[in-house]
C-alpha cells in the first residue's frame, strides 16, 4: 500500500469529508511524525507501535569501491517497535 | 515529552479544520488502515517517511533464561520499519545542529 492508496482508503471511509482533507490529514500526520523524530522527540501510538532514536557510535568505515578508510561520525537513526495489537494481528493469519 | 494520537488529532483540528471528533477518528483510521494492510501481508510504503515491511521468521531454538530449559521459538511474521533517506537525513541534521550549539557555548 502506498501513500496515495492510503489516502484513497481514508477518502472512502469518510465520504462526508472532501477528498483533499484526507490527503492533507495524511500529509499533516506524517509531517508531524517526521518533525517529532527530527527533534529527538519519540512517538508512541497505542496498539500500533513506537518510534525512537537509536544511537550509533562513531566508527571507521570503508568506501566499498576504493577500499579507503572513512570516519563515520556518531549519529542517531530512527527505530520502530511494533505494539502489541499490530504484532498479534500480523502474526495471526500465518 | 512524547508525540501521541491526541497530539496528532489536535494538529488535524488546527491545520485541516476537522472537528474534534473527526480529527480523533481520522488519526485512528490512519493507523488502522496501515495495520489492516500489514495484517493481510501487504507492505506499506509512505514516501518521504519510510516503509513498513513484513518478515517471516523460521522457528529457532530458544531457552527459558530463568530455568535454562530449551523451548523452540515458533515461526512468526514480524513488522520491520525502514526509515526513508529523507527521515534519516532530518534526524541527522538535528543532531548536527545540537552538536554545533554545544560547541558554540
Automatic annotation (TrEMBL), chain A:
Name the Gene Ontology molecular function terms of this record. DNA binding; structural constituent of chromatin
Against CDD domains, the record matches this protein to: IHF_B
Question: What keywords is this UniProt entry annotated with?
Answer: DNA recombination, DNA-binding, Transcription, Transcription regulation, Translation regulation
Stated family:
Belongs to the bacterial histone-like protein family.
Q: Which residues cross the membrane?
A: none
- This chain belongs to which protein, by name? Integration host factor subunit beta
Self-association and partners: Heterodimer of an alpha and a beta chain.
Q: Which InterPro entries match?
A: Hist_DNA-bd, IHF-like_DNA-bd_dom_sf, IHF_beta
Pfam families referenced in this protein's UniProt entry, alphabetically: Bac_DNA_binding
Q: Cite a GO CC annotation.
A: cytosol
Annotated organism of origin:
Chitiniphilus eburneus
Q: What does this protein do?
A: This protein is one of the two subunits of integration host factor, a specific DNA-binding protein that functions in genetic recombination as well as in transcriptional and translational control.
Example GO biological process term? regulation of DNA-templated transcription
From TrEMBL, chain B:
Q: What does this protein do?
A: This protein is one of the two subunits of integration host factor, a specific DNA-binding protein that functions in genetic recombination as well as in transcriptional and translational control.
Name-wise, this protein is: Integration host factor subunit alpha
**Quaternary structure annotation from Swiss-Prot or TrEMBL:** Heterodimer of an alpha and a beta chain.
InterPro entries (UniProt xref)? Hist_DNA-bd (IPR000119), Histone-like_DNA-bd_CS (IPR020816), IHF-like_DNA-bd_dom_sf (IPR010992), IHF_alpha (IPR005684)
The cross-references to PANTHER family, in alphabetical order and at most eight, read: DNA-BINDING PROTEIN HU (PTHR33175), INTEGRATION HOST FACTOR SUBUNIT ALPHA (PTHR33175:SF2)
The family database entries (SUPFAM superfamilies) matched by this protein are listed as: IHF-like DNA-binding proteins (SSF47729)
According to the lineage, what is the superkingdom? Bacteria
Tell me the PROSITE patterns matching this sequence.
Answer: HISTONE_LIKE (PS00045)
* Keywords from the UniProt entry: DNA recombination, DNA-binding, Transcription, Transcription regulation, Translation regulation
Q: Which family does it belong to?
A: Belongs to the bacterial histone-like protein family.
